[in-house]
Write a structure and sequence with these properties.
It is globular and about 65 Å long. The chain folds into 3 domains: 3-169, Rossmann fold, CATH 3.40.50.300; 175-235, Orthogonal Bundle (Helicase, Ruva Protein, domain 3), CATH 1.10.8; 238-328, Zinc Finger, Delta Prime, domain 3. With 330 residues, it is of the alpha/beta class. Helix 10 (209-220) packs across helix 11. It is built from 16 helices and 5 strands.
């Protein structure tokens, strides 16, 4: 590990307390047991596809597999890419193909494994053309490379890639598991905490352990993990701002809602897909009337964004439609 990475891992709790062995992964027992059985025969291990919500251990599990299969030289023989940063066919043809075409050196410490590993995170953000190119590389490089493909939405991965991988579906983490892990971190860091504050963190993150740890660290930085400090930390998150925008839109304050929306997307950099995800959750939490119409509305705008419609125009139109439904419920 480089000096910079060591410093970051000490500063960031989400890295400092990231599991390094499969058995340390939180609340994914069936998946861990299945992967352990596969690892027993390294030469026969297939390509893997991990799907599930954010912050439940998909990337961590992939890194644990790389460590256990490749030993001390795992970093040199592992390529980790985030497909949301480079979504196109150029990334696949250049970086992935180049890495996959190189044989693992026989002089490496762990000579029992003759392949290298490519971890492709957020693969559901890749274009269909890039995924098609990736499919061919997966076929051609099976002797030199194993792929671990990670996504939030399995439906966004083309069928030919799915059929070439063993699929593992990660589940959202249970409340007791997340709170138990947060308690462990507090005890190791010597931080005072309140039980209700930890429950508040879980409620805000819906089982996203990575997000939970970040909120925990932000709260601890204020002195202790109290309800007041947790609320203040959550208030800095985009999820709360989305809630304010949705409530303004439903109240008929379209201009206010649109200004806040543009600030959130253009200044704070929230993606349109994240906005839609948080907006959908907020609408259900508000327990409004006409939930069937709201569900249909969210599905319509989700589809529009998926097929490439202009995000700013579509999200502004969504706010206008929410205002109409809000006035209808009065």
């Amino acid at each position: 590990m480089s000096t910079t990475n060591k410093i970051l891992s000490n500063l960031m709790w989400v890295e400092k307390y990231r599991p390094i062995k499969l058995e340390q992964v939180i609340n994914q027992k069936e998946i861990v047991n299945g992967l352990k059985n596969l690892i027993k025969n390294p030469y026969e291990i297939p390509h893997l596809l991990f799907a599930g919500p954010a912050g439940v251990g998909k990337t961590t599990t992939a890194l644990c597999i790389a460590r256990e299969l490749l030993g001390e030289d795992w970093q040199r023989n592992t390529l980790e890419l985030n497909a949301s940063d480079e979504r196109g066919i150029k990334m696949v043809r250049e970086r992935v193909k180049e890495f996959a075409s190189v044989m693992k050196l026989a002089t490496d410490t762990n000579d029992n494994v003759s392949f290298r590993i490519i971890i492709l995170d957020e693969a559901d953000e890749m274009t269909s053309e890039a995924q098609t190119a990736l499919r061919r590389i997966i076929e051609d490089s099976s002797k030199t490379t194993r792929f671990i493909i990670i996504c939030n939405y399995l439906s966004q991965i083309i069928e030919p890639i799915q059929s070439r991988c063993v699929v593992f579906r990660f589940m959202r983490l249970a409340k007791e598991d997340v709170i138990g892990y947060l308690k462990m971190i507090c005890e190791k860091e010597g931080v005072k905490y309140e039980e209700k504050a930890l429950s508040q963190i879980y409620a805000a993150t819906s089982g996203d352990l990575r997000h939970s740890i970040n909120i925990l660290q932000a709260s601890a930085g204020m002195g202790s993990v109290s309800i007041a400090n947790v609320i203040a930390s959550i208030g800095l998150s985009g999820k709360t701002k989305v809630g304010e925008i949705i409530r303004s839109a439903i109240a008929g304050k379209f201009n206010d809602a649109r200004i806040k929306l543009l600030e959130l997307t253009n200044v704070y950099g929230m993606s349109e897909t994240d906005f839609l995800k948080y907006a959908n959750q907020e609408l259900y939490d508000m327990k409004l009337e006409h939930l069937d119409e709201l569900a249909a509305l969210m599905a319509e705008f989700d589809y529009r964004l998926a097929v490439g419609a202009h995000p700013e125009i579509q999200l502004s139109a969504l706010l206008a439609q929410l205002g109409k439904l809000g006035s209808k419920g009065k």
